Predict the 3D structure of the following.
Amino acid sequence: MVTLHQFRRAWHIPNPSQFCVKLETYLRMAEIKYRIEETLPLAAPLGKLPYIEHDGRKIADSRIIIGYLQQRFSDGPDQTLTARQKAQALAWQRLLEEHLYWVCMYSRWQTGPENWRINKQAIFQGLPPLLADSVASLYRLRIKSQIRGHGIGRLPAAQAFELGRQDVAALAVALAGQAYLLGDQPAGVDASAYGILINLLACPVASPVKDYALAQPALTEYCRRMQLRYFPELGEPQFG
């Protein structure tokens, strides 16, 4: 059985980490049996979550993990995709994970004391208060450095959020009139899209990108559809 190492659940969504949501959603899509080990990333491979343990191996990075799972089990939800659909999926994945994700991280880790308080409480829950404060401060410095290294963290907030709004607008257009990113059936890229979007729409961190996304019915309905299909035990997401 696969052991999934990830943060504790929060906010009535699968996880406060976009990539933990992505990986757990994929495991459910592919009907792979797993167990959860709640942890923090301080001693994790590559220093981040999620990671898995399987057959005595520790494997990190959701992209590498999913590739491993496809080799060991099956292609899961992607086994019937055409070459064109696989190309489209890769393009959407890059927009989601290499751009919109970083705009969301900008909101959580780099702007406003209230956003940071909410994020810190969800990520570092379970630690004693004094330890949580020190660990969170160190981790925040690391994440802010990564956001700056990406480039989005070097921009004024208004410019960063405008770029994120453009991503959200493209996703809203793509999902208008169809259930999933590639059509009527979910694919692996939907695990990524749900992970990013549910953490934008149902996370109590405020941002202009979130406000714009909440006004797009295609996106809220998509997240509701994904959550009720793959995480029915959590109920409907609470947006806002």
